[in-house]
Amino acid sequence: MNLFEVADSDRKSQHRNMTEVLEACRIQDLSSTTHLKASRIRSLLNAYRLSKAYEPDSKVAYVVEQFPNELVYALGMIPWNIESMAILLAQYGSADSFINLTQQNHVSRDICSFLRGSFGVIMANCYPNPDIVLANDQPCDCLSKLANVASKYYRSPFFSITTPTELNDDTLDYLAEQQRILVKDMAAALDMEFHESEIDRVVRQSNEAREYYCKTADLLRDHRLPGVSRELLEIFSMNAFGLPENVQLCKTLYQEALEMSNKPDSKKSGKRVLWAGQAPDGSHEIMRYMEEEVEVIFWAPLWSSNIMKLDPDDPYRSIARRAIEYHWHMERLQANLAEVCDSYGIDGIVISNAWGCRNMLALSPMMREVCGEKKIKYLTINVDFIDRNNYAFNHVKNRIDAFLEILM
């Protein structure tokens, strides 16, 4: 198999390939995992976006995690997160065939399973043919490499921006200028017109959604709101800030959270555990098992980068600031973790090391240091939510039991 040339770039064929996989997979009943109206809205929004991407006339941009999708929406394109799509398939039990395909083609098992799963879907030609592929070296260099390989595989234009690690005036100017050039290069490559007013419109919509998002996160500080932290995580992972539909989604979640917080029994009680690292879906056996005993709060939605709004007077620079904040910078994340533990009343932390993820391995010592300073219990587990060959519940159950015992 030639890894750098797709056999059939017709989106109807690709949609048929994906449909065949979904029909053969072990569809799970996820209806019991949430009662939130916002979750149903999100599912419908995702379903619409995914189906729309397979239409022949749609403009599709492959993007990596935490790419500034406002730039994509400003050009009227559909961002297709190549990693998140594979994670979504894994949640429905349909990643096995893609993992097997990578093994048949001798892709190293030492690579992060999230990337191998994504690569497998690309090799199976189940994703819609991209008009353009975009990367910004976040959250890891391997994901940027996968995007580059995808651009060769589909023979699509590839553009990449480099995000500095340090945050200062020079790095902000440098990254903001890259983004200005990128939007113009994207428009030229696709023979499209670009108007700066579109950036202004998208930024306003992004900020409006973010306002509801932040108010919802604030309610979590003092109230037990079942399903809300999970939904914040899903909204963050969807990365749809800039879409008008996302405004309604975040507004609905806030209204539901506010209604729950006004109930007499909503005051925070019991033990709270912060989940750090890649998280399985809400129906996963690990989550069901832990949530019988403790309330799980997810760390990623509460990062400083997810709480900040964009500056409508200087959109490129503020998007650049958020992008730099997204970097897994040890000192910035340590400060954020300490603040989250204090303000959300965290009693314990689960450090989830996903198979092959070097970032989490590097961050683990910092998180254990924060736990020591705060006198917080922690548990490190090694899991794989994509490749079932690397995971069995019994391997982690005893450790979870011991952690919960000392926590309670």
Automatic annotation (TrEMBL):
InterPro entries in the cross-refs: FldB/FldC_alpha/beta
Gene3D superfamilies, A to Z: 3.40.50.11890, 3.40.50.11900
Organism name: Paenibacillus durus (Paenibacillus azotofixans)
Alphabetical list of Pfam families matching this protein: HGD-D
Cofactor(s) for this UniProt protein: [4Fe-4S] cluster
Molecular function via GO: hydro-lyase activity
Protein name: 2-hydroxyglutaryl-CoA dehydratase
Similarity comment: Belongs to the FldB/FldC dehydratase alpha/beta subunit family.
